[in-house]
Hints:
213 residues, Chondroitinase Ac, Chain A, domain 3, 15-stranded antiparallel β-sheet, two-stranded antiparallel ribbon, 0% helix, 44% strand, disordered N terminus, disordered C terminus
Amino acid sequence: MKSKVxxxxxxxxxxxxxxxxxxxxDKAAPVATxxxxxxxxxxxxxxxGTLTTSTAITAQxxxxxxxxxxxAATTITAKDAAGNPVSFASLPVIYVSTPTxxxxxxxxxxxxxxxxxxxxxxxxVYFGGYASATFSQPVTITIPVDPAKxxxxxxxxxxxxxxxxxxxxxATITGNVATITTTSLCWFSVDDDFRSSTxxxxxxxxxxxxxxx
Length: 213
């Protein structure tokens, strides 16, 4: 059975939401991480420091449905911690990390947006050596979730400055897998409850894909 869920655009907590926090460099421990080296047959470094995929690239955690799939002909721009473009020095390694201890394995920004007090499933996807990245077209991220905890499945993503999670759009829940699309990387988490920094419980939000992070 499939259901649509709202996605948020900064970083926040979601009871039935998907969240993203940390944007690669802001790790909280403990997490389990898998890595995939981008091969020369899969992508080309451009003169402007960006990267363009020649084929679709999938990076996946071992023994799990947690994964990112980048379509062919996607231009990737690496970003520093301040969100400024930086050049890829070489073909990067893609890291896919999942918390091994629930929300205690995720960044906890507290100044704005939402905080994370529960999660049905979470992932941090990033390129080694770079705080974040953006894509010229949406990429797909899948996360295993507990179906009992994601009836509404709001999706949150941490802002690049680490100051809070926000609604970034809509996720699809199929069985025990949440699927989202995004044009930037960070921590993502799915759950059915989230709370703003002011203590207000959040609800579903508008559509989006994380652009601008």
